[in-house]
């Protein structure tokens, strides 16, 4: 049917399913937004792999009804398949912190940086004003196909309206269970993050200073971490290498302990295991994303299938070679040093204690994971049981 026929169906029927050629989520959203026109007050967005809580939409509407200065609101996204693998399990813990700590903090200052695609609600009269600009977004001459949710949020922020988050609205969405698919997903998200960071910077002056502070810190954080790690790995001292490992896991454990206290769930302590996933996978992938921001390929295959795109693995290999080079340099340097002095003996004792603490941490955490989580993964039935 033509455009007018689709608009008539959408505006007169309660439920309408429109089949169109695949072109990514932005194409589907544009069709729906365009067909709705100004016939509704609010528009909800959702993903195809998402299950909504019965009260999810009601809670979102309540936020927009209470404050006309709020242009969009997002809900709490939980993982539908946390027991598929260690990747999906750690992702489920990371999601909880991302929404109930990070986005909740942003919401306090009325500047949520991204209304996530699985669950969001927008004021339609505002959305229609920038619909064409959002749909035709280009970056370095390339039409943008992903990052639609973050750009929708940025467009709303650019108009001076607040964006909020509510934990009362909840949904469950599927996450990649294999490392390669997760890595491809994170690389794609990082591309849109860096691209939208540049656009978001244009509107910092219209919102609370927290928006500027968090954007600057989160934007520079990967570069600071990478530079610090490389500097310590090439310092030529074994204590520097051990210091990196202890600091990374120490900070991760402190963050996990806070999340466990906040949620009232000891399982959140296992969030500290996400640190190696970030340092060894996501961190180098961010640099690939930065170098390929203008490429519009999604980089992921169908759901529950092994990723066919191995390009995101290349920065991981390069990162591993860089760290290995620093490790070899430090080992060679220390092998030639004189360890007979009292200061060296004290350093050796400190190294032994630090290494013991580090290995002990991993022994405890992996045991807890294997006993408390891994056995549940093996027993998981074919389907998912979610109370919604």
Automatic annotation (TrEMBL):
Localization terms from the record: Membrane
Question: Does the UniProt entry include the keyword Transmembrane helix?
Answer: yes
What GO terms fall under cellular component here?
Answer: membrane
State the InterPro entries in the record.
Nucleotide-diphossugar_trans
GO molecular function ontology, one term from the record? hyaluronan synthase activity
Q: Which GO terms describe its biological process?
A: glycosaminoglycan biosynthetic process
Q: What's the Enzyme Commission number for this chain? A: 2.4.1.212
Pathway info: Glycan biosynthesis; hyaluronan biosynthesis
Q: Which SUPFAM superfamilies match?
A: Nucleotide-diphospho-sugar transferases (SSF53448)
Keywords on record: Membrane, Transmembrane, Transmembrane helix
Pfam families linked to this entry: Glyco_tranf_2_3
Q: What class of enzyme is it?
A: transferase
Q: Where are the transmembrane segments?
A: 215-234, 241-262, 268-289, 310-331, 351-371
Classification via PANTHER family: HYALURONAN SYNTHASE, HYALURONAN SYNTHASE 1
Name of the protein in question: hyaluronan synthase
Origin species, per record, is Sus scrofa
Show the taxonomic lineage.
Eukaryota, Metazoa, Chordata, Craniata, Vertebrata
């Amino acid at each position: 049917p033509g455009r007018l026929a689709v608009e008539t169906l959408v505006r007169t029927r309660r439920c309408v399913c429109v089949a169109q050629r695949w072109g990514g989520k932005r194409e589907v959203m544009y069709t729906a937004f365009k067909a709705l026109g100004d016939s509704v007050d609010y528009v909800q967005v959702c993903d195809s792999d998402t299950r909504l809580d019965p009260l999810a939409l009601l809670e979102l509407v309540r936020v927009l009804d209470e404050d006309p200065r709020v242009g969009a609101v997002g809900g709490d996204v939980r993982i539908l398949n946390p027991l598929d693998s260690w990747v999906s399990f750690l992702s489920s813990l990371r999601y909880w912190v991302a929404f109930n700590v990070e986005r909740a903090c942003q919401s306090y200052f009325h500047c949520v940086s991204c209304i996530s695609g699985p669950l969001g609600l927008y004021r339609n009269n505002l959305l229609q004003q920038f619909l064409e600009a959002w749909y035709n977004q280009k970056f370095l001459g390339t039409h943008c196909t992903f990052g639609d949710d973050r750009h929708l949020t940025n467009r709303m922020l650019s108009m001076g309206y607040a964006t909020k988050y509510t934990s009362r609205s909840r949904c469950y969405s599927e996450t990649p269970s294999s490392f390669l698919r997760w890595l491809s997903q994170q690389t794609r998200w990082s591309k849109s993050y860096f691209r939208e960071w540049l656009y978001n910077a244009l509107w910092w002056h219209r919102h609370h200073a927290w928006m500027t502070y968090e954007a600057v810190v989160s934007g520079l954080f990967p570069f600071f971490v990478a530079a610090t790690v490389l500097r310590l790995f090439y310092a030529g001292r074994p204590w520097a290498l051990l210091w990196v490992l202890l600091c990374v896991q120490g900070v991760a454990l402190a963050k996990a302990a806070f999340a466990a206290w906040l949620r009232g769930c000891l399982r959140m302590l296992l969030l500290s295991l996400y640190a190696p996933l970030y340092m060894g996978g996501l961190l180098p992938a961010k640099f690939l994303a930065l170098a390929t921001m203008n490429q519009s390929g999604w980089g992921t295959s169908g759901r529950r299938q092994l990723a066919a795109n191995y390009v995101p693995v290349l920065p991981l290999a390069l990162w591993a070679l860089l760290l290995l080079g620093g490790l070899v340099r430090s080992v060679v340097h220390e092998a030639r040093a004189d360890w007979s002095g009292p200061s060296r003996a004290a350093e050796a004792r400190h190294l032994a204690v630090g290494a013991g603490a580090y290995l002990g941490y991993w022994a405890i955490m992996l045991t807890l994971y294997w006993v408390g989580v891994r056995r549940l993964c093996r027993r998981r039935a074919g389907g998912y049981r979610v109370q919604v």
